[in-house]
Design a protein that fits this description.
The protein is an alpha+beta fold and 513 residues long. It is built from 12 helices and 19 strands.
């Protein structure tokens, strides 16, 4: 028990220290970062597919649980000999230091200090709880209080009841400390949030009107055409979203350019702004999954910034780098072919939410997020595809490729119980930067039937569809497929997300009674 309680106290101390140290990051978060970075692709993607955006809390909890379990085991092994506990504690400390050393430079010093403080807190807890007397192992023939009175608390024998109360108290304080750290740490920096809340986006040069009514079907349960910011999916490598001070923040544009440039937040806000509806999706999204959303993005065109810098011959890759060190790269040609590739500053009419990249991020229509959608952007570097490999490609994911033609059934839900008669089947389909030409629905493996399409907001967004089905009693399976504007039909070949994105026909099973 002593080892487990000490580990919990140490973790809570580290998390609390991260709140008060400038740029601080808990060693728990640093270790979790390394777990994700080093984990084989298959279990990592299965975790994302199963948990979606809840993957980060799960991983943090798992790392904490494993740490506490190891400490408890070390405590048991060290009941008569402290050497295993000392050696194991040193190894855990070394793991925390090693993981922290991989943090961004701005967080390195704070992370190391937090790691040392956590080790000291854990050692203090072990010292209080692991004396032989605390376990009730008094020398034979000696009664409590016999002989010389204890000179201090450290020398006084502790009853099992006192030990239990002390251990329970430490555990409660550790849990409370960790809870407080998690609660406060999940709240963005108040100064950054106040700045963001007070910021008003520059009016776009050609503001887009609200989506026409014909582009949306009014069907209960159908995904809205434009995803609210609060409901937009989040997949990134940051366990704690960076709160970036926009006053000191800078965006550098460098590498293979004629004129390296640096932009302040106000510089970008003063430039001509463009609005574009763009559907963004994650390559980890399983068939029929929810890691996709559509928003009205606003920002400065990337091709305009590249023209100001002057792209040198041979620079065939654009790499975005985040303040936390994450990188994503895509072919330069896709930033210069006329599509609305943006350094985005706004999302659905307001400055980017902190969790979605404030103060700036990259958005490139037609590509999965892992190769282009760098959040908390701090650098755009022109380089070559052969000389630089970005974060996820280093971990086995494929090179940049167009988003596959896909679709999804939103209603009825899988497992739904329906009444006989007319049932509306509805969902969304997407093929960003190509557009959707048609959607078809199949019931119980029968012939494909054409669905009705809502209007097309743009070729860079998804498109709603609906199909009126006359349901008969019994169990049924509904499947859907889409065809893009270039005539490519969604493939029936079922493959998992890794390494190029999931494919296959999404389906739901329903019961009509």
């Amino acid at each position: 028990m002593a080892g487990a309680v000490a580990a919990a106290v140490g973790l809570a101390t580290a998390s609390l220290a991260a709140l008060v140290l400038p740029g601080g990051q808990s060693p728990l978060v640093s270790v979790a970062d390394q777990v994700v970075s080093l984990a084989p692709s298959t279990p990592r993607e299965e975790t994302i597919a199963l948990l979606g955006t809840a993957d980060k809390p799960f991983i943090l909890g798992a790392v904490a649980a494993v740490t506490v379990a190891l400490a408890a085991l070390l405590g048991l092994l060290s009941r008569r000999d402290r050497r295993p506990l000392v050696a194991g504690g040193a190894l855990l400390l070394a793991a925390g230091v090693a993981a922290t050393a991989e943090s961004a430079p701005s967080a390195l010093a704070a992370g190391l200090v937090g790691t040392v403080l956590s080790a000291l807190a854990a050692a203090w807890s072990v010292g209080r709880l692991s004396r032989p007397q605390a376990a009730g192992l008094r020398p034979a023939g000696r009664a409590i209080g016999a002989g010389r009175p204890p000179a201090s608390w450290a020398e006084r024998e502790m009853s099992r009841r006192e030990f239990t109360l002390l251990a329970a108290g430490m555990a409660v304080l550790a849990v409370a400390g960790q809870g407080l750290a998690s609660l406060v740490g999940s709240v963005p920096s108040s100064a950054v949030e106040r700045f963001r809340a007070a910021t008003r986006l520059t009016r776009a040069a050609h503001p887009l009107p609200p989506p026409p009514a014909a582009d949306s079907f009014r069907i209960a349960g159908l995904t809205p055409l434009v995803t609210p910011n609060a409901g937009f999916y989040r997949v990134d490598t940051a366990f704690v979203p960076p709160s970036v001070d926009p006053v000191s923040w800078r965006l550098s544009l460098d590498g293979m350019v004629d004129r390296p440039l640096t932009f302040r937040y106000e510089d970008l806000m003063a430039m001509p702004q463009e609005e574009a509806y763009i559907t963004l999706c994650c390559v980890s999204d399983p068939v029929g999954g929810s890691l996709i959303g559509n928003a009205l993005w606003q920002g400065v065109r990337l091709d305009r910034l590249l023209a100001l810098a002057g792209v040198r011959h041979g620079a065939d890759q654009v790499v975005g780098r985040s303040v936390d060190g994450f990188t994503a790269g895509f072919p330069t040609a896709l930033a210069l072919d006329g599509r609305a590739a943006l350094v985005a500053l706004g999302m659905n009419g307001e400055p980017l939410p902190i969790v979605h990249g404030f103060p700036a991020r990259l958005i490139v229509p037609g590509l999965y997020g892992y190769v282009c959608a760098t959040k908390w952007l701090t650098e755009i570097r022109l380089t070559t595809l052969s000389s630089f490999t970005a974060y996820w490609e280093q971990r086995g994911w494929g090179p940049p490729a167009p988003v596959a033609t896909e679709s999804r059934i939103d209603v009825p839900r899988d497992g739904a119980a329906l009444g006989p008669g007319e049932v509306t089947v509805a969902g969304v389909a997407w093929a960003q930067h190509r557009g959707i030409r048609g959607v078809q629905v199949r019931v119980d493996g029968g012939p494909w039937r054409a669905a009705e399409l809502a209007g097309e907001l743009s070729t860079d967004t998804w498109r709603q569809w609906r199909y009126r089905w006359t349901a008969t009693r019994g169990g049924h399976t509904l499947a859907v497929r889409a065809t893009d504007a270039e005539g490519r039909v969604q493939t029936a070949r079922t493959v998992p997300p890794f390494p190029d994105g999931a494919t296959g026909y999404p389906s739901v099973s329903v019961t009509v009674g």
